[in-house]
Amino acid sequence: MNRRIDAWSLRLFVATARAGSIVRAAQQEHIAPSALSRRIADLEHAFGTPLLVRSPRGVVPTDAGQLVLARGEQIDADLQGLVREVQTQGGLLRGTVRLYANMSSVIGFLPERLQSFMAACPHVDVALHEQDTRDVIRACLDDRADVGVGVAVPVPAGLDAWHFATDPLQVVVPAGHVLAPRKTLAFAQVLEHPLIGVHQGGALDQSLHERAAVLGQTFAPRVTVSSFDAVCRMVEAGMGIAVIPQSAAAAYAGNPRFVRRPLHDPWAKRELSLYAPRKSPRPKTVQALIEALRGDVASGLASSG
What we know:
Elements lengths: L6 H13 L2 H8 L3 H15 L4 E4 L2 E4 L1 H25 L7 E7 L1 H6 L1 H11 L3 E7 L2 H9 L5 E5 L7 E8 L2 E6 L12 H4 L5 E3 L4 H12 L8 E3 L2 H9 L5 E4 H7 L5 E5 L8 E7 L6 H11 L11
Parallel strand pairs: 3-4, 3-5, 8-9
Antiparallel strand pairs: 1-2, 5-12, 6-12, 7-10, 7-11
């Protein structure tokens, strides 16, 4: 074959096809969009066929692009795995660990634990990706993530899981709200007031819809935003109240303009789990990060489902 296909261009194509956007993929891979676009054009020239259909709304793979995407994902995973294995040979921990984590763990628990880990292992880089819990688990199952953190769910076959943290749900209301004098609140009481939602379709959003349905009611936010800080700004402005994890409430509603109250429904005791693809042995850097994130947790490995 007289046309060279390099692994970096293949990785950029995979990232672009996944993201559906050259701009988003360029941000994820820390490269200029114009440079990424040239790389993909060179790759298309090497294959002798278009790989993407480009439009103002983004990009989608052609039939040939679908084939290159499927094979390219495996090639990239194999190469990244080879790099990690080589980098973890010997006694010195070095290399990159891929960590996927949900929004509340990134806000409330990971910064300090990651700082301690990286201080102890200065030659290890952590590539952190913020995703919803279902995407965290999918990344672990697809071997795109070495370690994941998300809401505790039944453990899929092929993954190991440990307790990571307890992050119960709280109700955030503006100071002076009619619910502010109450010490605790039931979800049924919350549903009687205008609501602010977060991350439509995400794990928390789905859970609140399901719990409302059990009560014979509807979880119908007046406004839905994409982040916990935006939720709290909407609450502060008086647009409604919100149910969010304690970690997020402490980070963004910890001043006198807000009142935070526990949600006392039994299901509101929200647990986070640490996930990892089941491998034996694991790369040393991955095992070191798992141990660091577990901290003093003594619970045993959860069985796979």
